[in-house]
């Protein structure tokens, strides 16, 4: 199969959906002439024109509200927020409005929109351009939160998100943009709320999201050489969560390590750990449920400090060994 | 202006006034919970401006929304039932007083984060611009909202993209208990709009005829392609911000002075002096409003409560 990058997969999903449905448009800061801060929409202005690729002022709150309002009257906007950190500015419209209008008006309104945003550290972008805030939004009934970890998932999940009749937060990872993988040329949809087993194994389950999936896969290679056979489950959407494959995996391996980039305190790992502990998998556990997550600090600029702030491959290897060797 | 139109305005003004009084009564009886914000004193704005809209225009407003809901045509009983928390309410008992909406009437509801609906209004207008229709969006908000970021981001976006939106500021002199001059560096709200290139004018918000004329002119300008417009309606709320407001921030002399400009009185005097209606006709309208409201309360009382199943309904669109 043809291989393209994660970034190209995102662009292809948007392009194909815009070709299919005139109600879909892209709105965001520098998405048009500039082509998107990371180039996600590069060339789309030339293809679709300024009526469908809308360059906004610097107005996260305003553009998120404009997208929400347009969605209320039947459009299917894709809003790009240049960095997830800026979702703090957009969050009022997302949390109080987009997520709640359907419920608040007794089911009489729908908000079919997607809010795409790049998250995560690893680019030296420092405190204001590196956060992973997905759990803020996973906490909100009425929103869906999607976190693709591969080019294939990025395309299929973005197509589903655009076709979904709810407000979807689509979290892309900056470090994944340049990663390549097989992606079908034709449009295809991966259902939201469907976890994926990225690697099968019998000794330890690793539940990882976004960029941590690829780090876990790399760690698994080293661990395999040591005779530790790791299974990796990627929830792909954290709201709704497809818990069953995770539970089944933990029942099989008896051990689980949860890995995400966001700060551990109040992070999604707590939700995953509780989901496992509350399930029938609890009785099968041979070791405590362990979380490996971002340190309890903002993301620093300095390269060494930045790398230490979030889980890296050696951290995953070390933690997996500890669990399997009964040292936790 | 036809006689029927004047009489309809009179009916709507009286309906809003009496609806609010009835709501207040029901609140005190414990039939309505939460917050309740009365529109008494400001009636001419909702009546005169919505009268000027065309059917495909959108309406969106803040939490003081009973009047807008009534004038777009939602039956009083459906609003009363909503405030009673009944499943027959316009938002199925889930929104209450502050979140009335009827999408079929293009009324996108009441919003209770001050200013939070202004960005949504730009979105409604953007969608119509995108579809190349002649629909405009009427967006209502109070003077207090003009100090928050939403206002400035929305006016800037509307001005930049020339969106078909009419911003209607209902300047009732106070954001909750804070007077305009204590909260706004610029006390003429129109000046804030002008900063974003929007044609803006002040209107006597107590006079329904003046409100209608100004709105009609502004909507015509939007439809002529002149871009977003701004009206500052000068008005006053005769009652407190919400129920239980101790009213420590204004004098009773001030309130009494504004009450001389009662919007119902202004129209009534005009109708009688110009011989457009006689006293008996107006009394007949008053009586029919009273009957409709009694029926509305009865309907709300007798309506069923939401069921346990309703709790989880309407969070997501399934499939």
Helix/strand structural class of chain B: alpha/beta
* Estimated structural class of chain A: alpha/beta
Largest interface (CB < 8 Å): A-B, 41 and 42 residues
Domain count of chain A: the total is: 2
Strands of chain A, count = 14
CATH topology category name of the largest domain in chain A: Rossmann fold
Please name the CATH architecture of chain B.
Answer: 3-Layer(aba) Sandwich
Roughly how many Å is the radius of gyration of chain A?
A: 20 Å
Helix content of chain B: 40-55%
Number of helical stretches of at least 4 residues of chain A = 12
> Poorly predicted ranges of chain B (pLDDT <50, ≥5 residues)?
none
Q: What does the largest sheet of chain B look like?
A: 6 strands, parallel
SSE topology string of chain B: HHEHHEHEHEEEHHEHEHHH
Q: Going by CATH, what is the homologous superfamily of chain B? A: Thiamin diphosphate (ThDP)-binding fold, Pyr/PP domains
When the domains of chain B are counted, the total is: 1
N-to-C CA distance of chain A: 42 Å
Strand order of the largest sheet of chain B: 2-1-3-4-8-7
Give a structural overview.
The complex is a heterodimer of chains A (328) and B (319). In chain A, helix 3 packs parallel to helix 4. Chain A is built from twelve helices and 14 strands. In chain A, helix 2 links the parallel strand 2 and strand 3 (53-55). Chain A folds into two domains: 3-182, 3-Layer(aba) Sandwich (Rossmann fold), CATH 3.40.50.970; 196-324, 3-Layer(aba) Sandwich (Rossmann fold). Chain A has helices at 6-20, 44-48, 60-72, 87-98, 101-104, 134-138, 151-163, 211-225, 244-253, 268-277, 303-309, 313-324; strands at 3-5, 24-28, 53-55, 76-80, 113-119, 143-146, 167-173, 180-182, 196-199, 204-208, 230-234, 237-239, 256-263, 290-294. Chain A has 328 residues and is α/β, with parallel strands linked by helices. Chain B has one domain (3-248, 290-298): 3-Layer(aba) Sandwich (Rossmann fold), CATH 3.40.50. The longest helix of chain B is centred in the first third of the chain and has 26 residues, at 3-28. Chains A and B meet through helix 3, helix 4 and helix 5 of A and strand 2, helix 5 and helix 6 of B.
């Amino acid at each position: 199969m043809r291989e393209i990058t994660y970034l190209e997969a995102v662009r292809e999903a948007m392009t194909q959906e815009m070709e299919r449905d005139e109600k879909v448009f892209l709105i965001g800061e520098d998405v048009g002439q500039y082509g998107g801060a990371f180039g996600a929409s590069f060339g789309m202005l030339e293809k679709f024109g300024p009526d469908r690729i809308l360059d906004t002022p610097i107005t996260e709150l305003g553009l998120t509200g404009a997208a929400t309002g347009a969605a209320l009257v039947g459009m299917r906007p894709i809003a790009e927020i240049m960095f997830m950190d800026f979702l703090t500015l957009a969050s009022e419209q997302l949390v109080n409005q987009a997520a709640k209008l359907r419920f608040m008006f007794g089911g009489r309104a729908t908000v079919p929109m997607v809010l795409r945003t790049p998250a995560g550290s690893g680019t030296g972008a420092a405190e204001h351009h590196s956060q992973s805030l997905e759990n803020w939004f996973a906490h909100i009934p009425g929103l869906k939160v999607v976190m693709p970890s591969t080019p294939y998932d990025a395309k299929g999940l973005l197509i589903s998100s655009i076709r979904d009749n709810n407000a979807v937060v689509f979290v892309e990872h900056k470090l994944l943009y340049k990663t390549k993988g097989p992606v079908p040329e034709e449009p295809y949809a991966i259902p939201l709320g469907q976890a994926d087993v990225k690697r099968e194994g019998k000794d330890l389950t690793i539940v990882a999201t976004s960029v941590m999936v690829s780090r876990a896969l790399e760690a698994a290679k080293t661990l395999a050489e040591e005779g530790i056979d790791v299974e990796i489950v990627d929830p792909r959407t954290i709201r709704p969560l497809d818990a069953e494959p995770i539970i089944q995996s933990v029942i099989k391996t008896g051990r689980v390590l949860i890995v995400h980039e966001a700060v551990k305190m109040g992070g999604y790992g707590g939700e995953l750990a509780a989901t496992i502990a509350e399930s029938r998998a609890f009785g099968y556990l041979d070791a405590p449920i362990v979380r490996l997550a971002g340190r309890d600090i903002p993301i620093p600029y300095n390269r060494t400090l930045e790398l230490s702030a979030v889980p890296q491959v050696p951290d995953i290897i070390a933690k997996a060994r500890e669990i399997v060797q009964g040292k936790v | 202006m036809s006689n029927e139109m004047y009489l309809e305005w009179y009916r709507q003004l009286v309906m809003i006034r009496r609806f609010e009084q009835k709501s207040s009564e029901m609140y005190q009886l414990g039939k309505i919970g939460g917050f309740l914000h009365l529109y008494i004193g400001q009636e001419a704005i909702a009546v005169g401006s919505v009268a000027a809209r065309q059917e495909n225009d959108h309406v969106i407003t803040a939490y003081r929304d009973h009047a807008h809901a009534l004038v777009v045509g939602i039956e009083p009983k459906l609003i009363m039932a909503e405030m009673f928390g009944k499943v027959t309410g316009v938002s199925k008992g889930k929104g209450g007083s502050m979140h009335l909406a009827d999408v079929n009437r293009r009324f996108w509801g009441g919003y209770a984060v001050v200013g939070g609906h202004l960005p949504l209004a730009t979105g409604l207008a953007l969608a119509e611009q995108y579809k190349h229709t002649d629909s405009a969006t009427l967006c209502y908000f109070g003077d207090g909202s003009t100090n928050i970021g939403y206002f400035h981001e929305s006016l800037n976006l509307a001005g930049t993209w020339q969106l078909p939106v009419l911003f209607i500021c209902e300047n009732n002199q106070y954001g909750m208990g804070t007077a305009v001059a204590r909260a706004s560096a610029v006390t003429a709200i129109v000046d804030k709009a002008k900063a974003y290139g929007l044609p803006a004018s002040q209107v006597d918000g107590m006079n329904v005829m003046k409100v209608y004329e100004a709105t009609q002119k502004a909507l015509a300008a939007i439809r002529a392609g002149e871009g977003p417009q701004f009206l500052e309606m000068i008005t006053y709320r005769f009652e407190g911000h919400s129920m239980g407001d101790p009213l420590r921030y204004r004098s009773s002399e001030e309130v009494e002075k504004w009450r001389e400009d009662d919007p119902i009185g202004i129209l009534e005097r005009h109708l009688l002096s110009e011989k457009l209606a006689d006293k008996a006709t107006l009394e007949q309208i008053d009586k029919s409003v009273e009957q409709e409201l009694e029926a509305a309360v009865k309907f709300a009382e007798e309506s069923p409560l939401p069921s346990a199943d309703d709790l989880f309904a309407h969070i997501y669109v399934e499939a």
